Amino acid sequence: GVPPFAGFWSKDEILAAAWDFSPVLWFVGVVTALLTAYYMSRQVFLVFYGDARWKEKKGAGEHAPATPHESPKLMTVPLVVLAVLAAVGGLLNLPEVYTLEHFLEPVFEDRLHALGITGWMQVALGVVAVAGSAVGILVARSIYLKRTEPADRFEPEFLRRAWRFDESLAAFFGGPGRAFASFTSRILDGRVIDGAVNGVATLVRQGGTRLRVTQTGYIRNYALGMAAGAVLLLGFFVLRTGLV
User: Fold this and answer.
1) Is the pLDDT score of 244 beyond 60?
2) Run of H or E residues at 212
3) Virtual CA dihedral for 185, 188, 189, 194, nearest 10 degrees?
4) Residue 8 near residue 1, CB atoms below 8 Å
5) Which of 8, 48, 116, 126 could be disulfide-bonded to 1 (CB atoms 3.0-4.6 Å)?
6) Mean pLDDT of the region 35-44
7) Alpha-carbon torsion 200, 201, 202, 208, what sign?
8) Contact criterion met (CB below 8 Å) for 34 and 140
């Protein structure tokens, strides 16, 4: 965020409020602004300047290399509008103008409080913040545009890998997540779900094996079974009648 772009004015207000609360927070904000200016300038220099890196040799069986092209108007027009507002929108909140000063006051009126710093102090803080952003832009320019400094000098491996944030996140959440997935695969899925399905199949198979011995093919065995069933039914009805 550098003047006159809108990002400067919003950043300047945030830094002024941070200084009013704690100079330490203000310093952290200035360092963050420097880093933001550095990596955003790095992105601009890598994307829009230098050699075209998409021109690669076409190998056997490969598709033609991708070629950048203009986006359709459905995407371009909104981006142009946003770019114009980003370039000049901050001018609406210039000191002594403050067109947007009371825009959200009805919503946040009970939370608003005046800053405890003077106008000149706020200007000085803004100059320091702009100087920090300028340092970030110049460093990125010397590395990625002019190629006068090696990137490793300002971007050690720890920073190039985003403070190893992704690795830490994967280790913290991925470790327990993999353990839980392994548990559900071995215990819940392997023993409970598969065990229930296989248990029903085993029960049916063993039941069929037990019942199969009753099918001998001899009529006398079937007649004996029918007679035994008739005796059991007769005994049941006799006992029931006697109890009644």
Assistant:
1) no
2) helix 194-212
3) 150
4) yes
5) 8
6) 87
7) positive
8) no
